[in-house]
Amino acid sequence: MSDYDVIIGLEVHVELKTQSKLFCSCSAAFGAAPNSQTCPVCLGLPGVLPVLNQQAIELAVRSALALNCQVRPFSKFDRKQYFYPDLPKAYQISQYDQPLAEYGWVTIRGADGMKKIGIRRIHVEEDAGKLNHMGIRLGDASGSLVDLNRAGVPLIEIVSEPDLRSPEEARLYLTELRAVLSYLDVSDLRMEEGSMRCDANVSLRPRDWTGSLEDLPRVEIKNVNSIRNVQRGIEYEVERQRELLSRGERIVKETRGFDDQTGRTYSQRSKEEANDYRYFPEPDLPPLVLDPSWINALKESLPALPDAIRASLVERGIPAKDAEVLVLDKDAYHYWQEAVRDFHDERLVTNWMLSDVARLINARGESFKTAVVRPQGLVELLTLIQQGTLSGRMAKEVLEAMFETGRDAKTLVKERGLAQITDQGAIQAVVEEVLSKNPSVVQDFLSGKEKALAFLVGQVMKATRGQAKPDLVNQLLRETIARDYQNA
Question: 205: which strand partners?
Fold first, then answer.
């Protein structure tokens, strides 16, 4: 691979979270019975006229602004013509030479530091329908059924510059892009439901190449349904092209699919060019003219976005690695925000959230948004630790019970008798008993073997069922040995 550079550009389609479709009043909700959310407009019947959805344009402009794009006050819609069974009009209303927005960027953070990835354009278009293949896999299907519920759902297509140089950078770009859009709440972003889809364009450039990137033979991997699979598909495609070039064969410019079972790409059709679609201005829609003051008002209303949140968390003392985990999961960040409003040890909240809470959430297939233990429940648990009622080990046990039962920490501690023993007299009695039963271990400690003390601490904790306060146990053991055994 030393003779080649990997060149990657991504086209990301994001369904906008509107109640109705882009050009009609049909519901845009996911999951309804096939073909139950259609009308003459989205079915493409003769004589109908599209009416533009204002909310879709607002969400598209907010997305473009958050991605540092220049929003055009003047843009227009075009007809992109092609025939496919899930496109009832035989054309898609999209934007071609005058898109909604251009010249943005996303910053990714990888092993080599920060890198800015350019966004060439963002345009608005309607979605096509969906083919449901009758079989486990497309190659085995006995037929296909057409569901047009999705036809006409509003999309934005975010087209990156070919600035990505590895499958890992592609993964980082998509992860950051999804995080930005999630804070805007412009889309569900559920790749498994198709509300965020990605096409990856992959080329290998010889190191001695002097031509334009546009002249490189480019392979497009179409409609990949998860960020992990985008990375896998690119990894396979890079290796496939490398092997072809090493044998002196040429790369065919084509569109390929990705099989997530085999991890391989497969040929679908030759790659279309813009002239194949015979674009022309949409005659049934006027140009889209936006008031600059309206654009500025939307910009002012944007929420805090990942870059600003990262900087804020690090400034507050959260380690950069932990801040990254919180930022990339909006639900986790909002969970954290709610918890630290009532519990001011932010590092302790972060540590518990990203270790034990996250582990239990993942084990139950939940998220921070749906977790049975809400931020107030975590705050109550951490308060019991801070007050000395629970040790860290005991708190872990209580947290697991909270997830299993849905009950609060105080109730569980009372019912199960899990409160930490802090009474010095009670612990002293156990300490003296443990020391009397382990004289040889006491002598080992007196001879300088610190590990012997750990054994004695363990014996006290065992005798108290783990409920004695560990630092008090340590203190009393040292004091008692110094007082009663030092000169024995």
Answer: 5
Is residue 268 within 8 Å of 222, Cβ to Cβ? yes
Return d(Cα 331, Cα 374) in angstroms, integer. Answer: 12
Low-confidence ranges of the chain (pLDDT < 70): 1-2, 136-139, 272, 274, 417-423, 487-488
Identity (one letter) of the amino acid at 71? V
The pLDDT of residue 209 is 82
- Give yes or no for a contact between 203 and 5, defined as CB atoms under 8 angstroms apart: no
Q: Looking up tokens 């709440």, which residue turns up?
A: 185
Structure tokens at 245: 């070039």
Whether the Cβ atoms of residue 38 and residue 26 lie closer than 8 Å to each other: yes
Q: Which CATH architecture has domain 424-484?
A: Orthogonal Bundle (1.10)
Between CA 165 and CA 173 the distance in angstroms is 11
Q: From 338, 365, 362, select the one nearest 349 (Cα to Cα).
A: 338
CB-based contacts of 371, cutoff 8 Å, min separation 6: 335, 357, 361, 403
Residue whose C-alpha is closest to residue 368's, from 335, 393, 341, 404: 335
What pLDDT is attached to residue 203?
94
pTM value is 0.85
Domain boundaries, the chain: 4-297, 304-416, 424-484
Q: Which residue has the tokens 């648990």?
A: 381
DSSP 69: P
The set of residues, in sequence order, having a beta carbon less than 8 Å from that of 281 and lying 6+ positions away, is: 76, 77, 78, 79
Q: Considering Cα of 177, then 181, then 183, then 187, what sign does the dihedral take?
A: negative
Beta bridge partners of 125: 155
Asked if 329 and 368 touch (Cβ cutoff 8 Å), the reply is yes
